[in-house]
Specification:
448 residues, 6-stranded antiparallel beta sheet, binds alpha-D-glucopyranose, signal, EC 3.2.1.51, 2 domains, glycosidase, 7-stranded parallel beta sheet, alpha-L-fucosidase activity, TIM Barrel, 14 helices, Glyco_hydro_29, alpha/beta, Immunoglobulin-like, 16 strands
Length: 448
């Protein structure tokens, strides 16, 4: 059996190149900076991987690419994809109630099966599955009704398309047949123009760019074309370096703050993007909320993924996680949306964020503190401390402040047992002005 981890085997060299390039070519918004406003404040998005792979409950597209199943057997799943209980309004309500502000649906994964009635190919759930109808439009409408921004995932590579032959991908790569590859690129343009004109998404989440260079995908032309449909369109970073508006770290929570101004961590709830009934390795709601808070602390978004079943029902575990997110995001609304990245690590043993004017420091505790919470190196005076979503006022005291030294004292906050949230407790610390931190070396007598 040929097992090839594609990210290792095909794109390691290219990946390194991309990494190097992306460090010298930061991802930035080339159009109006205002278009990123909603994205910056959204904080939570929901990713939906829905496709025929949910029928057997196997890896989306990769399962045939890696020869875990033959291509023909993979495609037999078409006959089991019914969408018979698809309730896009229910999906949109659940997404909204989780506190998410945008959602991204896989309109077409690497397997090439379109979830809408594409005229560019016959390979769609409309023409080839018992579902027999457009699945993209109804969700986009339902999201719009709920005030949720509409995102479409689209794989630029297509392992089913006759002009993108997956069997020759290793050696042929259309290097010697640009005419044929151009036919494929035209097909991508056609599908994307269909999606833009039918559904006018707020965001495109591209994927699969690693098999070709941006010039081969015609990324610049594609982006320009899509912007003619919506000048405020946001594009993720997977059309090649320099074309995206934001960065997309995947699965691993960043340890240090990503360098790009806008970023989003995409993450599965268990270990699978699509529905896999055999994958019970769900992170708990509390664990996922901690990941979410890590993103907030570093000024990014979380795009949390679930995979619906072939009939369109949402797995119970996913529904439960979204409901638990809703409980926490509703209670802590003021400490989520419109916050910005918090203060550097080292001042508090906890993630933090700041209000837009930087006068409120939010502190996120996923543990019960021992006696009191300590804040080091905070020059500001604390005006008031309260427990977000609970209101209890807490006492703060400063200890060890020498009147003749500029080194701030230790600030301690006492937290009674009865104010803790079952997942993450949030404290709001109102300062006497924008946060002002002591970042020097800490000598008692400082030379001028
Ligand atoms: C990777 C995977 C793909 C998945 C995507 C989501 O690119 O190849 O299957 O859809 O991540 O971020």
């Amino acid at each position: 059996m040929k097992i090839c981890n594609p990210l290792k085997r095909y794109s390691l060299a290219f990946g390194i190149l991309v990494l190097l390039l992306s460090q010298s070519t930061p991802v930035f918004s080339q159009e109006s900076p205002e278009k990123m406003e909603w994205f910056k404040d959204a904080k939570l998005g929901i990713f939906i991987h829905w496709g025929i792979y949910s029928v057997n409950g196997i890896d989306e597209s990769w399962s045939f690419f890696n020869d875990y199943i033959s291509y023909d057997d993979y495609m037999k799943q078409l006959s089991g994809f019914t969408a018979s209980k698809y309730d896009p309004e229910k999906w949109a309500r659940l997404i909204k109630s989780s506190g998410a502000k945008y959602a991204v649906l896989t309109a077409k994964h690497h397997d090439g099966v379109a979830l809408w009635d594409t005229k560019a190919s016959d390979l769609s759930v409309v023409k080839k599955t018992p579902a027999g109808k457009d699945l993209v439009g109804p969700l986009m409408n339902a999201l719009e009704k709920e005030g949720i921004k509409k995102g479409i995932y689209y794989s630029v590579l297509d392992w089913s398309h006759p002009d993108y032959d997956r069997n020759t991908r290793e050696t042929f790569r259309y290097k010697n047949d640009p005419v044929r590859f151009q036919k494929f690129v035209d097909f991508n343009f056609k599908q994307l123009e269909e999606l833009s004109s039918k559904y006018n998404p707020d965001l495109y989440w591209f994927d699969g760019d690693w098999e070709h260079k941006p010039e081969e995908w015609k990324s610049a032309e594609l982006k320009a074309k899509l912007l003619t449909y919506n000048k405020n369109l946001i594009i993720n970073s997977r059309l090649g370096p320099g074309y995206g508006d934001y960065d997309t770290p995947e699965q691993g929570v960043p340890v240090t703050r990503p360098s790009s101004e806008f970023w989003e961590l995409c993450m599965t709830m268990n270990n699978s993007w699509g529905y896999q009934g055999n994958d019970h390795a769900y992170k708990t709601p509390s664990e996922l909320l901690r990941i979410f808070v890590d993103c907030l602390h570093m000024g990014g978004n979380l795009l949390l993924d679930f995979g619906p079943k072939p009939d369109g029902t949402i797995p119970e575990e996913a529904e439960n996680i979204l409901t638990e997110f809703g409980r926490w995001t509703t209670k802590h609304e003021s400490a989520i949306y419109e916050t910005q990245a918090g203060i550097p690590d080292g001042h508090i043993f906890a993630p933090t964020t700041l209000s837009p004017d930087k006068t409120i420091l939010y502190i996120y505790l996923d543990y019960k503190v021992n006696e009191s919470l300590a804040i080091k190196g905070l020059k500001n005076k604390i005006q008031r401390v309260w427990v977000v979503g609970n209101g209890t006022k807490l006492q703060a005291r400063e200890v060890g402040k020498m009147y003749w030294s500029s080194v701030p004292g230790m600030k301690y906050i006492d937290i009674p047992d009865n104010v803790y949230d079952k997942d993450i407790t949030v404290l709001a610390v109102l300062l006497d002005g924008p946060v002002d931190l002591y970042r020097e070396k800490g000598q008692v007598i400082e030379s001028n």
